[in-house]
Amino acid sequence: MSDTTPPTTPSQTVGPYLHIGLHWPDGPFAVAEGTPEGFWIRGTLTDGAGQPISDGLIETWQADPNGRFDHPDDPRGPTGYPGFRAFGRCDTDEHGEYGIFTLAPGAVPGPGDTLQAPHIDVSVFARGMLHRTVTRIYFPENVNANAADPVLSTVADETARSTLVAEPATDGYRFDIRLQGENETVFFEI
């Protein structure tokens, strides 16, 4: 008797569908373009060999400057920033570059009665990946808050932790994301 069970087919990756089905023209703007307090977070998405990934997608989710989320489940009430969407989506260009225009996030409640340092949650989608990866962007000016952050403090290695802190740039911040290899960005299980 022969086995008639068909072979398992390989899983699909999350790309290159991203540029076809998930492009969102307003995506890079978590807040309206030209908002006075707004700034850009720009970076390059690279693979393990350091090569730019031209068919990736970066999504961000964050609190407003008061630490409130634009979501009905936030028990602290609605955000006080009209037009603040809290969500950004940008596909990478031919050089692996992305940009999100946003506001500085505020501290948000953490486990117990702690506060998490101001940060932006980031999801990365790209070719060859079966699932998204998740990381965070922290800001260098929040030295004390970063040191006390319950999530950032789980990253013991100082070099690895530095991959989670954005660098100041002319029009905001730079946050490069490397999926593998030397200086790989720290990613979190969710």
Query: Which class of secondary structure composition applies to the elements?
Result: mainly beta
Arithmetic mean pLDDT = 87
- By CATH, the architecture is named Sandwich
For this structure, the quaternary state is single chain
- Strand tally is 11
List SSEs in N-to-C order. HEEEEEEEEHHEEE
Overall domain count: 1
Strand content: 25-35%
CATH level 3 topology? Protocatechuate 3,4-Dioxygenase, subunit A
Q: Which consecutive residue ranges, at least 5 long each, have pLDDT under 50? A: none
Distance between the termini: 44 Å
The CATH superfamily is known as Aromatic compound dioxygenase
Largest sheet entry:
5 strands, mixed
Helical element count? 3
Gross morphology is globular
Radius of gyration over C-alpha positions, nearest whole angstrom: 18 Å
Classify the helix fraction into a percent range: under 10%
Protein name: Protocatechuate 3,4-dioxygenase alpha subunit
Pfam family, one: Dioxygenase_C
Family: Belongs to the intradiol ring-cleavage dioxygenase family.
GO molecular function: ferric iron binding; protocatechuate 3,4-dioxygenase activity
Structure explained in plain terms:
With 190 residues, this protein is mostly beta strands. It has a single domain (17-178), classed as Aromatic compound dioxygenase (Protocatechuate 3,4-Dioxygenase, subunit A), CATH 2.60.130. It is 8% helix and 26% strand. The chain has helices at 17-21, 143-148, 158-162; strands spanning 39-46, 57-62, 87-91, 97-102, 108-109, 115-116, 119-125, 133-138, 167-169, 172-174, 177-178. The strands form three sheets. Strands 1, 4, 9, 10 and 11 form a five-stranded mixed β-sheet that branches. Strands 3-2-7-8 form a four-stranded antiparallel β-sheet, with no helix packed on it. A two-stranded antiparallel ribbon has the order 5-6. Strand 5 (108-109) and strand 6 form a beta hairpin. The radius of gyration is 18 Å and the shape is globular. Belongs to the intradiol ring-cleavage dioxygenase family. This is Protocatechuate 3,4-dioxygenase alpha subunit.
